[in-house]
């Protein structure tokens, strides 16, 4: 496949960075993943806005020209479609760059490393609850850091939480804080439905402001379903009528079991089908 590295398009296997890159040594960088289907991107503007916010948060001085990046991302999609198929995720990464000093402080005068590559996404599922079996997730205390709103490349905490779900044969791990309040999942956001209303945890430093979360909130409005951003406790999660997790790769995944406990009747719910139908139609235009 064709990748992008520091201004050039190169075959992925020929892309080389310094082992002194602080992205490698410190996880000192920001990333994005933009999904695309049939060559069309989802949420490009929103992803670029979050990318810029992340760079500002960690003081990497790099300005993003949205039009240039749109062209770059579109090329990674178009040039890799023959190899990867119609469902492609584009990973974008800016790390602080290579520095010989092995010193924690942000170095002066280093050039950020800019990297992008394309990978195959799974095909979107049909918005039909009669054929979707629903997924199971693990449940764990959130043991990551207190800056989860930054889409940092330092993902070890997330990786360890995700690995628990792999060991338990589940699709993800939903996380709760010390107060037994749901934060998010290891690589996705969480929604619940209760008595016809939708709830999702409010944005703060405990969770990533997911782009899919943002798009789903717009779809809930289109569906006329009230949405409240509020604290959700573990007990409320387990007592929900429906649980969904959202991310660029998973879109809206309906959850029928959490930490070994069945949600509602253990079947995918009607609100998921209603909202995911809208999402599937609207995702390219939102
Ligand atoms: N939360 C975390 C920790 C994530 O890593 C991700 C995405 O990978 C999400 C939420 C969902 O964000 P998005 O919808 O922008 O993909």
Automatic annotation (TrEMBL):
Gene3D superfamilies with a match to the protein in the record: 3.30.470.10, D-amino Acid Aminotransferase, subunit A, domain 2
Catalysis performed (reactions): 4-amino-4-deoxychorismate = 4-aminobenzoate + pyruvate + H(+)
GO molecular function, a single term: 4-amino-4-deoxychorismate lyase activity
EC number: 4.1.3.38
Cofactor entry: pyridoxal 5'-phosphate
Pathway: Cofactor biosynthesis; tetrahydrofolate biosynthesis; 4-aminobenzoate from chorismate: step 2/2
Keyword entries, A-Z: Aminotransferase, Folate biosynthesis, Pyridoxal phosphate, Transferase
Example GO BP: folic acid biosynthetic process
Pfam families per UniProt: Aminotran_4 (PF01063)
CC terms in the record's Gene Ontology section: cytosol
InterPro entries: Aminotrans_IV, Aminotrans_IV_CS, Aminotransferase-like, BCAT-like_C, BCAT-like_N, Class-IV_PLP-Dep_Aminotrnsfr
Role summary: Involved in the biosynthesis of p-aminobenzoate (PABA), a precursor of tetrahydrofolate. Converts 4-amino-4-deoxychorismate into 4-aminobenzoate (PABA) and pyruvate.
Family designation: Belongs to the class-IV pyridoxal-phosphate-dependent aminotransferase family.
Protein name per UniProt: Aminodeoxychorismate lyase
Organism, as annotated: Alteromonas lipolytica
